[in-house]
Amino acid sequence: MRNYRLLLVSALILALVVVSLGAYVRLSDAGLGCPDWPGCYGKLIGVPEQAHEVHAAQSAFPDKPVEAPKAWKEMIHRYAAGVLGLCIAALATIAWRQRTRRAPWLEIGLLAVVAGQGLLGMLTVTKLLKPVIVTSHLLGGMSTLGLLVVLFLREIRAPRLPSADPGLRMLALTALATVLIQIALGGWVSSNYAAAICADFPTCQGSWWPAMDTHHAFTLDRELGSTASGTLLSSAALTAIHWTHRLFAGVVLIVVGSFGFGLLGPDGRRGYGIAILATLILQIGLGIANVLLQWPLLLAVAHNTGAALLLCATLVATARVFIVQTMPGTLRRAEFPRRFHVVR
């Protein structure tokens, strides 16, 4: 099991790196740095840089000029995602071989998510950054990270804790759902390039309620920059996307902050509460700084990474509210509602 745990930790770290790299590619406008998939201008290794390679690439893709810096960003992200996929495949293989000891369904489910991520990665390119696909790809990356966190929690030894009261358990689930919704809204802002439409804080365009077009803003089946009918997406629609994300950040602050403070009692969960509050403050601060500084690239990437860390902190704390873990690989119900089941 030592090899399994080492591989799991490596995959967990790599998943966080891949999420951050994906944000870097998207925010640096390199999502179409390679017009094909899985290679780049037909090359599986490297990108066209030599004169004859560039000429061949331009002949094969005449309306896609070669931009080597953007192509490298995209390919480095793909390589990292590929290594992550291999790590997860290895985890699923090990789990299947040891299925008599423990059910391997979490690892197999994770492998299925990664396969879906590969498909979404291809569609991101072939569908020319269609917002619903790009956002789904982001959510798939966050789901991969979350499932790896769950596997990691199953492997570590954690102290016995007293059962949490029903109110805290409900708050935990609400906080986790709130973080997931906010990540989806943030992905929708990013995939529609709506971050810069509100350049002031705390207002947007000098108003507490700017002109917004929520109908076209949240129509899912449309192309990038267009409405479902093909007309140009208005600034009012982009404003609605951005402002909704910013308003919901207030909900996150209240709900997740309340959960963090609720964990600060003397029952042994104080560290989890501090972790949640620290990542929440960091994420809110990064969001405000990005608006005031007009979304510098590295700060925008840090905001995406902060969302991943907040998800991890909330997920771990939620697990520690619901689950008692007595030894590595052994979970038992801790005041779980009857409809939930935990693998023993």
UniProtKB/TrEMBL annotation:
Pfam families to which the protein is assigned, alphabetical: COX15-CtaA (PF02628)
Biological process, per Gene Ontology: heme A biosynthetic process
Subcellular location, principal: membrane
Subcellular location as annotated: Membrane
A GO-annotated cellular component: membrane
Membrane association type: Multi-pass membrane protein
Protein name listed in UniProt: Heme A synthase
Organism for this UniProt entry: Zoogloea oleivorans
